[in-house]
């Protein structure tokens, strides 16, 4: 089967391509990626000539590019997106263009091409924020709170509406926070590993007690493939690791793994509208698809820290480019205004 993957040069996409080419001889991949700041050809450079892989540089919101990419494909895994909440607070427009309009354009192209499956990679953030107890299930009402999560909720509901209205074979996945190799160092775990390595402050938002439910990217990729293989059209599948941690706990784990002092922790002004807690109930996906996460959190984080230490050139190149302007915009004032006592 030939599968169109969108956003394959990003974090989850690169891990998806690597997994499929190594382990799924029955699948060929066409990767449509616009190579935004988050799309890095270096993530897949060694696979460029693989016989079951083809790369197309293009924008999912471009009708012609989307139609050309999906031609000859039997299935789609759509994960191209603007993915960083902080950037969506700085400027929502690109999130609407790529995540909402891009999804509609791709859905139409895939409908025209008559694909037999369309997996839309959504996120647990569409459910909004939880209090101290409870879990998101697939029937939890959507209540997105950032421009990012609102744009993902729009994409998610569009896919389900195409199933309801047109009988289009869309399936939606909603996964919790991923970590692992190739994650762009704007996100919490790679940002804190790379900053700590350089003895730079770790800017922890608010009181550092917000909770995220972490899953290794490899387990997410296996979940996406289970949905592609066995998911039912029109259904939603939650994917989560069951590893709830406060951001402060994550920070302490990273510092311990690197042997760095707690004095690097710097509490800074909170993210606007910061969701307090996410936690996924993945009972349906486990029961119906026979999927379960396999990577122990402690071991997964230790391996991820090692990966960043062994791939310095990869992230040093990113952090020395346009990323520096982003970092100054996002953190410059926050860090200058942070209390002198960093603990
Ligand atoms: P990422 O930002 O690392 O990668 C996004 C990729 O999409 C990049 O390669 C980028 O070039 C590409 N892209 C962006 N705009 C495009 C466009 N208009 N046309 C074509 N390509 C475009 O993101 P990620 O963390 O790998 O996330 C992938 C998907 O998974 C996203 O849809 C995200 O919402 C979802 N998701 C992520 C997480 C997580 O923790 N990272 C959790 C749940 C769901
Ligand atoms: O500098 C930081 N300081 C900080 O305290 C950053 C970048 C983050 N944080 C906090 C905010 C969150 O509570 O850490 C937590 C995780 O932040 P991110 O890594 O930005 O992830 P999050 O906002 O939870 O969203 C992620 O998971 C769901 C992905 O970026 C999304 O694409 C996915 O949908």
Explain the overall architecture.
The protein has a domain at 2-179 and 216-239: Rossmann fold. A seven-stranded parallel beta sheet has the order 3-2-1-4-5-6-10, with helices on both faces. α1 links the parallel β1 and β2. It is α/β, with parallel strands linked by helices. It has helices at 11-23, 63-70, 85-90, 93-113, 147-166, 188-197, 217-230, 247-258, 283-289, 297-310, 312-320, 323-336, and strands at 2-6, 28-33, 53-57, 75-78, 117-123, 170-175, 177-179, 202-205, 211-216, 236-239, 244-246, 265-268. The model has no long low-confidence stretch (mean pLDDT 97). The structure holds nicotinamide-adenine-dinucleotide (NAD) and thymidine-5'-diphospho-beta-D-xylose.
């Amino acid at each position: 089967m030939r599968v169109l993957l969108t956003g394959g040069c990003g974090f989850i996409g690169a891990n998806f391509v690597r997994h499929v080419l190594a382990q799924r001889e029955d699948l060929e991949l066409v990767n449509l990626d616009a190579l935004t700041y988050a799309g890095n050809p270096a993530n897949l450079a060694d696979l460029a000539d693989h016989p079951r892989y083809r790369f197309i540089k293009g924008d999912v919101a471009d009708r012609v590019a989307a139609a050309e990419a999906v031609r000859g494909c039997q299935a789609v895994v759509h994960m191209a997106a603007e993915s960083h909440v902080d950037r969506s607070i700085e400027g929502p427009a690109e999130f609407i263009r790529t995540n909402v309009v891009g999804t509609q354009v791709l859905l139409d192209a895939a409908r025209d091409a008559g694909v037999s499956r369309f997996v839309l990679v959504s996120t647990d953030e569409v459910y909004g924020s939880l209090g101290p107890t409870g879990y998101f299930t697939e029937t939890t009402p959507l209540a997105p709170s950032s421009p990012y999560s609102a744009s993902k909720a729009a994409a998610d509901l569009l896919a389900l509406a195409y199933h309801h209205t047109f009988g289009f074979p869309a399936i939606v996945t909603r996964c919790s926070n991923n970590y692992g190799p190739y994650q762009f160092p704007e996100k919490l775990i790679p940002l804190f590993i790379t900053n700590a390595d350089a003895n730079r402050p770790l800017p922890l938002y608010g009181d550092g007690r917000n909770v995220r439910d972490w899953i290794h990217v490899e387990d997410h990729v296996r979940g996406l493939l289970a949905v592609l293989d066995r998911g039912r059209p029109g259904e939603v599948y939650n994917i989560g690791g069951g590893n709830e941690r406060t951001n402060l706990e994550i920070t302490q784990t990273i510092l311990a793994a690197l042997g760095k002092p707690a004095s690097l922790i710097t509490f800074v002004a909170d993210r606007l509208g910061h969701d307090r807690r996410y936690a996924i109930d993945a009972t349906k996906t486990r029961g119906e698809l026979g999927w379960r996460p396999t990577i122990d959190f402690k071991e997964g984080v230790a391996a991820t820290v090692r990966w960043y230490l062994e791939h310095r050139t990869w992230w040093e190149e990113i952090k020395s480019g346009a990323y520096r302007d982003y970092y100054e915009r996002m953190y410059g004032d926050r860090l200058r205004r942070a209390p002198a006592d960093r603990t």
